[in-house]
Amino acid sequence: MANRAVRAMLAVLVVLALLAMITAVYYYARVKPLIRGGRVQGVYASLPERPPVGGFGFAAEGGPRKTIADLRGKVVIVDVWATWCPTCIYTIPGIVALRNKYPVESVEIIGLNVDDEGWAKAKPFLQKHPEINYTIALPSPAPSFLLQSIVDLKPLGEVSAIPTVFVIDRQGRLAGKFIEAGHERGIDDLVVSLLNE
């Protein structure tokens, strides 16, 4: 009887050790690179440095799936946010101000919601915030990885803190990435620069 209990205990310990190893491998192979990539921000000033992101897809409620390539000819601002994020809510007036500043014909603004419940969370939030005057959409297809603020939005890029704002040039190439709040001036300056290219 004692041997059986010892063997059972050893089996449990082996299973737990295997689970710990699998978890560690998954974290270091999948999660940690997303966190690292999500922390990289900056502006790609020269055209050859800008990675193409035209294949990134999104869908507004009730609308067809679109890609960044469908918006070719416009500067595109993608604000990655979630309803549970206080900093995201704090930055909404700045995004509204950008929408008011630039004509729809030259600048498209997309609030890309990454709530894990999608429209079920976004719709009630939008009803409480009628001041939002730009397109709200969900990634389409759904991200291959989504855990709170860690999101894989390939080919647009990785996100590890929200809000994260991506600015895309008229040819569908990533021109800048701004993480968290406080970048309103930098985003605006980049948009002006891209409109003058």
Order of helices and strands: HEEEEHEHEEEEEEH
- Taken from the alpha-carbon principal axes, the silhouette is elongated
Rg, Å, rounded: 21 Å
Q: What is the number of strand segments?
A: 11
Highest CATH level, the class = Alpha Beta
Number of domains: 1
**Which structural class should the secondary elements be placed in?**
alpha+beta
- The chain-level mean pLDDT equals 87
Number of discrete helical segments: 4
Q: Spans with pLDDT under 50 lasting ≥5 residues?
A: none
Report how far apart the termini are.
80 Å
Per CATH, which architecture?
Answer: 3-Layer(aba) Sandwich
- Fraction of helical residues: 25-40%
Notable traits:
single chain; alpha+beta; Glutaredoxin; 8-stranded mixed sheet; 3-stranded antiparallel sheet; 4 helices; elongated
Protein topology:
Layout (H helix, E strand, L loop, with lengths): L1 H37 L3 E2 L13 E4 L4 E3 L7 E7 L4 H16 L5 E7 L5 H10 L6 E5 L6 E2 L2 E4 L3 E3 L4 E5 L5 E6 L4 H12 L2
Parallel strand pairs: 4-5, 5-6
Antiparallel strand pairs: 1-11, 2-3, 2-6, 4-10, 7-8, 8-9, 10-11
Task: Briefly say what this structure is.
The protein is an alpha+beta fold. 38% of the residues lie in helices and 24% in strands.
